[in-house]
Amino acid sequence: MSKHILSGIACAILLTLSSLALAENAFPTTKEADWTAKTFTFNSGDKFNNLRIHYYTIGDKSKPAVLLLHGTNQPVRSLLAKGFAGELFGPGQALDSRKYFIIIPESIGSGKSSKPSDGLRMAFPHYDYDDMVTAQYRLIKEGLGLSHLRLVMGYSMGGMQTWLWGEKYPSMMDALVPMASQPNELSGRNWMMRRMLIESVKNDPAWDEGNYKQQPPALKTANIMFSIATTGGTLAYQHLAPTRALADKLVDERLAAPVTADANDFIYIWGSSANYNALPNLNRITAPMLIINSADDERNPVETGILAGEIKQLKQAHLFLIPASTETRGHGTMMLAKFYSAKLKTFLASIPGYDK
């Protein structure tokens, strides 16, 4: 690898660390811990002993609790970066961590929570979003001893889980904020691309039915392809790469980055969305909802008209659609909380029980 590329990677790492430091300086120290469910029964019927859920907390446990749910393959550090936490968790901001106790669990299959790469590989029980939500609920109730949440808010996969939270535990929270998500089952290009992600890895001979000696090469290329195709924003990419040379530069930078994912974990977590469908039980949701989506979301294209009819089934729901621009990032727009922080703050202020 050339000195130029190494230098570029080093600069990117320093910038990331600087962003995290800037964000964390604005709110109390983030704490990490594990909670273990001694027994856990998956929807598949499989039973698992000592299921580990790793989680992060910010603030005082005596304050109203906010449950924040991450996206697929999304490291928690992205929720602690300047563009997100730096816009939401600081003094006077929408999720001021002096006023709220913020809980960020790593879902089954993610981060330091139980996952196939811990040792079981493809013998690990197949899980779905409902399993993830059940585990989160048990963490809140059994692990943290909390009986109520001020807010459940999530991005992408976490947004879909937010819909499920409202249906499974309707009296558990004051408010719901699903972001970059919809309640309908995965379909169209969204599911087709996920299916191709999984197939790309499984069809790589190096995968060897999950018994690989090193990460299959298809893991990197499939992940980069999916990311470019379904996140980033059409206008934003054209602005960043108006020539082939600049587009190649963006691709080369991604290809030069090290692989940090595990192939079996990757297959499991993308496959976990297969049976998601919150549509049939929308009438169970009673908490007020602020649904935040972006007009350039590649995975949830606004032109499909999904949500137009569904939102009428909800008792108290409002859709906030962020207009597309060269500054938005398609499906990834929610990591730039500046686009909706004021709306979120106003929404929470309108919900009874808000601590002024």
What is the name of the CATH topology of the largest domain?
A: Rossmann fold
CATH superfamily of the largest domain: Alpha/Beta hydrolase fold, catalytic domain
Please, what is the average pLDDT?
Answer: 92
- Radius of gyration, in Å, reads 20 Å
List the uncertain runs.
Answer: 1-24
Strand content: 15-25%
How many alpha or pi helices? 10
| Topology as a string of helices (H) and strands (E) | HEEEHEHEHEHHHHHEEH
Organism: Mangrovibacter phragmitis
Active site: 156 (nucleophile), 297, 331
Domain AB hydrolase-1: 64-303
GO biological process, one term: methionine biosynthetic process
Keywords:
356 residues, alpha/beta, Rossmann fold, 2 domains, eight-stranded mixed sheet, 34% helix, disordered N terminus, HAT_MetX-like
What features would you describe in this structure?
With 356 residues, this protein is α/β, with parallel strands linked by helices. It has 2 domains: 3-185 and 277-349, Alpha/Beta hydrolase fold, catalytic domain (Rossmann fold), CATH 3.40.50; 190-267, no CATH class. Helices cover 34% and strands 17% of the residues. The chain has 10 helices and 8 strands. It has helices at residues 3-24, 85-88, 129-143, 157-168, 188-202, 217-230, 234-240, 244-256, 263-271, 341-349, and strands at 31-41, 47-58, 65-69, 101-105, 149-155, 173-179, 289-294, 317-322. An 8-stranded mixed beta sheet has the order 1-2-4-3-5-6-7-8, with helices on both faces. α3 crosses α4, α5 (188-202) runs antiparallel to α6 and α5 packs antiparallel against α9. The longest helix is centred in the first third of the chain and has 22 residues, at 3-24. It is globular and about 55 Å long. The N and C termini lie far apart (54 Å). The model is unreliable at 1-24 (pLDDT under 50). InterPro entries: AB_hydrolase_1, AB_hydrolase_fold, HAT_MetX-like.
